[in-house]
Amino acid sequence: MNGWHARLAVRVLRRGGIVLHATEGVWGFACDPFDPGAVAALLAAKGRSEAKGLILIGDVPERFAPELDALDPAIRRAVVGRWPGAVTWILPNRQFPRWITGGRTTVAVRVPGHAGARCLAAAFGGPLVSTSANPSGRPAARNRFQARARLRDLHRRGRARDIHLLPGETLGRRGPSEIFTVEGRQLRGGG
Asked: Which of 31, 42, 43, 173 is the most buried (most CB within 10 A)?
C-alpha cells in the first residue's frame, strides 16, 4: 500500500468510516475501535451482534502493551513470539470499550502477518477493528473481486455509509486467523 492509499484510508477511518483491506487469508472490514458510531456501522454491515466481540489488529505488539503487561513474562514472550502472524490471542482487557469486547473482561488481538494490514494500522496510529468482510454466517471475501462484491451489496442495502476499498491481495492462507487463549486453548483453527 502506498502513502496516498494509506492517507486516504486514515481519513475514512478518522471520520467514522470503514476500510476493506486484505489480510493473510480473507478480506476484512476495519474501523476505529474507539468510535462507537463506526463500530455500530460495521456491525450493521455484517449483521453481527455486539455481544460476539471483535478482533483488533495492531502494527506492533506495543499497541497492546496494557494487555501484554498483565501477563506472566513467559506467557507474554509466547504470545509476542507468534507475531506477526495469523494468530489471535484472547488477553485480559485493559483499554478497550465494551462494544469491542462484547462486555467481556478479555479482548481478541493480533499483529497480522500481512504487511498491508500492519501498514494500515501504523498509518492510523493505533489498533483497528479487523473482522472478516462478509455478512455473519456467510463465507468471507477471499479476493479483491469478492471484496468489491461485498461493497456493492452494502451499497444496495443502504449500509455503505463511508467505505473505502484498499488495493491488495490476501497472502493465500486458506482461512481466518487461529484464536488461542493465554492458557493455550485453541478456540478457532486456522486455514
From this structure: 31
Q: What is the CATH number of the domain that holds 183?
A: 3.90.870.10
Strand pairing partners for 89? 109, 180
Domain that includes residue 40, residue range: 3-188
The SS3 assignment for 29 reads strand
- pLDDT reading at 22 higher than 60: yes
How many angstroms separate the CA atoms of 172 and 106, rounded?
A: 29
Q: How many domains does the chain have?
A: 1
Report which of 37, 3, 39, 34 is spatially closest to residue 116, judged by C-alpha positions.
3
Q: What is the pTM of this model?
A: 0.93
Distances (CA, A) of 41 to 36, 160, 187: 9, 9, 26
